[in-house]
């Protein structure tokens, strides 16, 4: 029996993706969520962690604190858990270059757009405003440049004429809950790596849209 992959999840809010990963660990994910760290003390994801007897910490940004200073405090909190994989799940802070480089190849994020389209915030409204016919979510390795790391897996949803950002966000979120645990499983199996700025699954280089099932 191989050592289970130690997963640390960073959150800021609801924690639906955290919950999906917790539920996946109970099934066949070959991983354990060993801790949850939030930058918001009122994040509902902290409740979810407590309900599943998972240790939690809060690292709340101080007023006038630089991103480097925040990152140093966050690294200290993370070190307690000795994670194999850091999962950003609705984590809403831009991380410093120094912080990200400390965990290169072992930190992933789920972003609510079909990257490279719409890095940053308000992705659903931007897709609606652009009259896009499809939208979706992307799981990617985290690099210093925001939402620009190598894409691992994407899920697409249709955009309907009557869509609001809220309706579209819900449709995208349902897909997120399906794909994020899959990527965590791939990593826990040792199948997923980042080398020279590219993502590889089973030593096959993944394209701009990540893994494409044939
Ligand atoms: N260096 C990196 N940091 C982060 C990445 C990344 O790829 N590289 N991914 C993001 C996740 N994310 C979108 O998926 C994201 C999170 C936060 C923001 C942002 O503009 N945050 C603001 C504060 C917004 C708020 O508090 O509501 C900020 O930090 O000033 C954009 C994209 C996680 N970090
Ligand atoms: N830029 C990061 C970002 O916008 N992440 C988004 O936060 C939402 C809430 O996640 P949660 O329910 O897992 O907390 C998710 O849709 C995720 O894509």
Automatic annotation (TrEMBL):
InterPro entries noted in UniProt: Formyl_transf_N (IPR002376), Formyl_transf_N_sf (IPR036477), GART (IPR004607)
Pathway membership, UniProt: Purine metabolism; IMP biosynthesis via de novo pathway; N(2)-formyl-N(1)-(5-phospho-D-ribosyl)glycinamide from N(1)-(5-phospho-D-ribosyl)glycinamide (10-formyl THF route): step 1/1
The coiled-coil regions, if any, are none
Q: What does this protein do?
A: Catalyzes the transfer of a formyl group from 10-formyltetrahydrofolate to 5-phospho-ribosyl-glycinamide (GAR), producing 5-phospho-ribosyl-N-formylglycinamide (FGAR) and tetrahydrofolate.
Regarding protein family, the annotation reads:
Belongs to the GART family.
Q: Which GO terms describe its biological process?
A: 'de novo' IMP biosynthetic process
Active site per UniProt: 111
Looking at its record, which EC class is this enzyme? Answer: transferase
Positions that bind N(1)-(5-phospho-beta-D-ribosyl)glycinamide:
15-17
Give start and end of each Formyl transferase N-terminal domain: 6-184
* UniProt GO MF annotations: phosphoribosylglycinamide formyltransferase activity
Q: Where is this site: Raises pKa of active site His?
A: 147
Instruction: Specify the protein name.
Output: Phosphoribosylglycinamide formyltransferase
Q: What is the lineage of its organism?
A: Bacteria, Pseudomonadati, Pseudomonadota, Gammaproteobacteria, Alteromonadales
Give binding positions for (6R)-10-formyltetrahydrofolate. 67, 92-95, 109
Q: What PANTHER family does this protein's entry cite?
A: PHOSPHORIBOSYLGLYCINAMIDE FORMYLTRANSFERASE
Gene name, per UniProt, is purN
From the UniProt record, list the reaction(s) this protein catalyses: N(1)-(5-phospho-beta-D-ribosyl)glycinamide + (6R)-10-formyltetrahydrofolate = N(2)-formyl-N(1)-(5-phospho-beta-D-ribosyl)glycinamide + (6S)-5,6,7,8-tetrahydrofolate + H(+)
Q: Which Gene3D superfamilies match?
A: Formyl transferase, N-terminal domain
Where does it sit, as one GO cellular component term?
Answer: cytosol
Q: Which organism is it from?
A: Shewanella sediminis (strain HAW-EB3)
List keywords of the entry alphabetically: Purine biosynthesis, Transferase
């Amino acid at each position: 029996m191989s050592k289970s992959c130690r997963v640390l999840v960073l959150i800021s809010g609801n924690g639906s993706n955290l919950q999906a990963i917790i539920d996946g660990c109970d099934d066949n994910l070959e991983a354990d969520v060993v801790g949850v760290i939030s930058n918001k003390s009122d994040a509902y994801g902290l409740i979810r962690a407590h309900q599943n007897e998972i240790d939690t910490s809060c690292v709340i940004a101080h007023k006038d604190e630089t991103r480097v200073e925040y990152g140093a405090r966050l690294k200290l909190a993370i070190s307690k858990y000795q994670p194999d994989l850091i999962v950003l799940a609705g984590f809403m802070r831009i991380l410093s270059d120094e912080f990200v480089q400390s965990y290169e190849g072992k930190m992933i994020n789920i972003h609510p757009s079909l990257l490279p389209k719409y890095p940053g915030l308000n992705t659903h409204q931007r897709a609606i405003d652009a009259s896009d016919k499809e939208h979706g979510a992307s799981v990617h390795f985290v690099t210093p440049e925001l939402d620009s790391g190598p894409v691992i897996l994407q899920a697409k949803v249709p955009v309907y004429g009557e869509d609001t950002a809220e309706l579209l966000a819900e449709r995208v979120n349902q897909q997120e809950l399906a794909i994020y645990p899959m990527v965590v499983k791939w990593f826990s199996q040792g199948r997923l790596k980042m080398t020279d700025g590219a993502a590889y699954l089973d030593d096959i280089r993944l394209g701009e849209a990540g893994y494409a099932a044939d």
